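LAB NOTEBOOK - FOLDING QUEUE
OPERATOR: T.R.
BATCH SIZE: 2
PURPOSE: Compare the predicted structure-token outputs for two unrelated chains run back to back under identical settings.
PRIORITY: normal
REVIEWER: second-year student, initials M.K.

ITEM 1
FIELD SEQUENCE / FIELD STRUCTURE:
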Amino acid sequence: MFEHVDAAKSLDQKEYDRVAPELKERLGELQRKARDASMPVVVVFEGWDTVGMSEIVNKFILPLDPRGFLVHPISAPNQDERSRPFLWRFFVRLPARGRIAVFDRSWYFRSLARATEDKDEGARLAWHEIAQFEHMLSQDDHLIMKFFLHIGKKEHKRRLEKYRDSDLDRCAISNIDLDFFKKYDKMMPLIEEMIEKTDREYAPWTIVEAEDGKFASAKILSTAVRMMEYGLSKMEAKSQLSMDANPLMKNGQMFNSSRGGIDLSRKLAQDEYRKELEQLQDRIGELQCSLNRAKVPTVIVFEGWDAAGKGGVVQRLTTEMNPRGYEVVPVGVPTADEKAHHYLWRFYQKLPPGGHIRIFDRSWYGRVLVERVEGFCCTEEWKRSYQEINEFEEMLVDNGTNLVKIWLEIDKDEQLRRFQDREKDTQKQWKITEEDWRNREKWDFYGRAVDEMLFRTSTSKAPWTIVESNDKYYSRVKTLRTIAQSMESHLPKGKKGPND
């Protein structure tokens, strides 16, 4: 690949002065159009550390309105970032719609760093995650531009010898990174493989010959202009497509119900319930401590019908937990800022660090339930969400997260009884709203959406547990038992709990 790249290409000052002003003016104009079209733009700069990255990035952003972009300089992850999934710190920095995020180093630099730590396998796993990540963004209308700034080995060596220890901080080069990039011959095949594995039509790489700064700047500007024009043309074409009818409101594809074979008559006597509940609560409290020491993050997802008992289960689950180690995340209507990002963005914000627990009272599955049934997103959007959710959850599990997904199932008659009880009880009237009654009218439509959700997202790595919940005692005990068993399965080998 790089043997065919002439890194020494140059542009004289006269030619640069001729082409650069027009490119800069056009780029500023396209930034405003991207803002008006609500197109988010992600710009990635990678390359050798001696390439003069900061100067090239600065030349790129100077024509832009500073109110519409952020530059994210990426260095080695801090302790908190290391305790989270690899892509977490990049996902939370993604731009809102109509804004630009410029990454001065990115997920690619850190994936190469993994190669030195994990004998290349860590890098290859990261490239798989990155390809899925960028595909998901492109499907959500993100324009992705990736530039690799290349210089030849001889020039790299010459520049490297210029750096003295006192220059490192000024040039934002750490001793570790300097040692890393001294290994030019070792890193070159890895960089080539990285580009081959992640060069896609929706997120293409541009190799920039960067020994001459003027040539590099002109090539980046012209590429950015071309790609911005292409991205905006796609946005315009998409805006002309109307929202399609919700197939749930027609007799669309049906799925065999995973819920159809469960026995909702299952019950638990009160004395047995109290005994088992207390034992499970104590055990979960112990397991929380063990997983905290082992730095294992836990994500618990609760979904289910309105009035299925999510709140009551969460209350019993957390009774013996240390409040400093868990957080309950109630998920409602997204804020304006959340709507301006990819729908998974707000859930990335709440992913737990190592050793902590996040309990989601409703979750990202709203995309294929409420948003689908109520028509808040089009068919194309919710259909691709199944794969996005599966890849998101696979990423969590592969990064060591204990993921538990609970669906609380009740029948339509039981829901009606609970709704009526809430209306009569002054202490519970706040729990029932007009929206609950409206949703109930669409019970069959929601049922079809639930069936497809369970069918498409119960995977070997992230299975659903359906809990029979007509009887609250049985529901709470089964749910806590399921969570305790999952926590135990994630203890370090040979450990059963803090007191064993």
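ITEM 2
FIELD SEQUENCE / FIELD STRUCTURE:
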Amino acid sequence: MKRLLLLILAAASLMTGCVAFLESQEKLKETQSLINVDFKGTVQRDIAYADGLTFDLYLPVDCSKPAANTLFFFIHGGGWTSGSKADGEAWSRFFAASGYTAATLDYSLQTGKATPSIDQMIDEIHQCIRKVIAVSAENGVSLTQMVVNGYSAGACLALLYSYREEPELPVRFVITESAPVSFDPSTWEEGVHWYVNFTTGVDGSDKGAAAWLSKMSGQDVTPRMIADGSARPVWEKISPVDQLKAGAPPTLLGYGLTDGVVPRGHKDLIMSKLKETGTHYDYVPFPNSGHALAYDIDCQKAFLDLVALYRNLFL
């Protein structure tokens, strides 16, 4: 009888989860429909920029207009373990339909035995942008500036590239949704779903934190380094919030207030630092949404209105 009850509860839980998943997928389609446009330009797919890595390039109908010289570069999410350049197709078509050049890339993921560090991913972004510039020139487009756009893990990379790196093109502003901004293990111990702690190994122990930080940084971090604080320079080097300085590009932030994938405190960390450095930013909260920002279509409309405003102000 007890076993039967457990099976019934498990089945009910599974059914509830499936219904919630289908509902969120339907809501996400509704939200994403806001950037689905009739794009009549050209797409060049699967352009190689590194061993086994490619990007897609979206060119506007008229490449002779000044807007084409601005690149909108999308970096996909997926927890650094999944996702692909296809996730950036809607955004790329959206911007290219307005006359801009757009691109979306694949980068190395932490799958199987592969453990590319955050710095390796950033290096690949550099390689990709250099190739985007070259291929665009072959098509008569001379890129002069860029906007970096990312979701989730890709938003983290977008911020780190824009705040820490010497970019191939001047970054005029950054568009981010659901961005993790710190690799300080202590910021990941609370405010996330249990499966995030399970998959990252950040369980409150020095051993778990050291293993996770070692993987993300590509450096050998020991539990003792976590305990005595000597690991701090390691996580600060790859944390956008710690690399943000005065003179950083304007930043647009969107966060779901029920997000359990990215620690909810991260939005406060980045906004505090943006204020401290005097960096222009705007923040759109999605009060009913989690990580996918699927349940607040009015907020997504407000977010897109700010994207349009940033285009007018900074391009």
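REVIEWER COMMENT (ITEM 2): The chain has two domains: 39-182+240-314, 184-238.
FOLLOW-UP: none requested
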